[in-house]
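Go through this chain for my students:
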Amino acid sequence: MRRDLSTRPFRLALAALVTAGCVSVAEAEGGPKPEPPAQQEFQPAKIDKNGVLILVRSTLIALDQANKTGNYTVLRDIAAPGFAVVNDPARLAEIFANLRRDKTDLSGILALEPQLVAVPDINANGMLHISGFFPSAPTQINFELLFAPVNGQWRMFGLGVNVGASAPTPPAAPPPAKKPEKKAEPAKN
């Protein structure tokens, strides 16, 4: 069962939009546009729990270190080539400025177990998609990650992180109903 994270404002550094197809370097430079991909088919990824943990934690810790140092070069350099081409360190600093400004500390993920909102899957483009959250109080860390196969390794191709409430917030209480005004009744003798 997928949990809808799209309603939360994720800051994404995606080298391509999965739902809209990939933007190639040639297209960005005004070259011929590729045909839109066929409807994407998803299949479960052949990766064990430890592999998922390593990918999620190492990616988010790389982001945490980039935010703390202000240096996004390593984050870009450990990513897939398609990600690095469209995301220079300055662009990554801009994308994740809100996390840096808020001094968001992601290091707590090292001690927590991520809760996946869906089984990791591989889309029609061969990308591994992992999404979930780290439950912590008073906030939780939501993530959406996309990895591309590069020389037999999964390398980051997309990264979205959001810090939100750790529990659902109840809806606002409706305003109190006005009591009907009583009409003055004539005095009884």
Notes: The first strand starts at residue 11 and ends at 12. Strands lie at 11-12, 43-44, 115-116, 121-122, 128-134, 139-150, 153-165.
